[in-house]
Design a protein that fits this description.
The protein is of the alpha+beta class and 118 residues long. It has three helices and four strands; from the N terminus they run H-E-E-H-H-E-E. It has helices spanning 6-23, 53-63, 83-94, and strands spanning 29-35, 39-46, 97-103, 107-115. A four-stranded antiparallel β-sheet has the order 1-2-4-3, with helices on one face. Helix 1 (6-23) packs antiparallel against helix 3 (83-94) and helix 2 packs across helix 3. The mean pLDDT is 83.
């Protein structure tokens, strides 16, 4: 499977990040998507339960994996992973880079950077 369109890719990423914020009991969720000449940047910030250091480090690893153009070979490896882990894996493999900040009990901010396809 190759995600060819920016719109489709962005929708999948926003859906996953929004779902995670809701699962973290967030009451206030801010989503910002903007384009630069070379990138599409997705930022989501919530006031959910946040993450402890161990979960934060694990999430950083999921979000900052090597880019994979073709995900077909990967889908078989998702068996047994919970939905948020598999979703964050897919975001990590389809984005150029990601930044995450989280404070336990206060919330999380995730910023995803994607190259624009012209």
């Amino acid at each position: 499977m190759i995600l060819r369109t920016d719109k489709h890719k962005i929708k999948l990423m926003v859906d996953e990040l929004l779902s995670n914020a809701i699962d973290a009991h967030a009451e206030d969720i801010n989503i910002n998507i903007h384009k630069t000449a070379d990138e599409i940047i997705i930022m989501i910030e919530d006031d959910g339960i946040g993450m402890d250091e161990e979960n934060l480090n694990r999430t950083k690893k999921l979000l900052n994996q090597p880019f994979r153009k073709d995900l077909g070979e990967y889908f078989g490896q998702l068996t047994g992973l919970d939905n948020s882990t598999s979703g964050l894996n897919l975001i990590g493999m389809q984005s150029e880079r990601a930044e995450i900040e989280s404070i336990e009990g206060q919330g999380t901010k995730i910023t995803i950077y994607n190259k624009r396809h012209h």
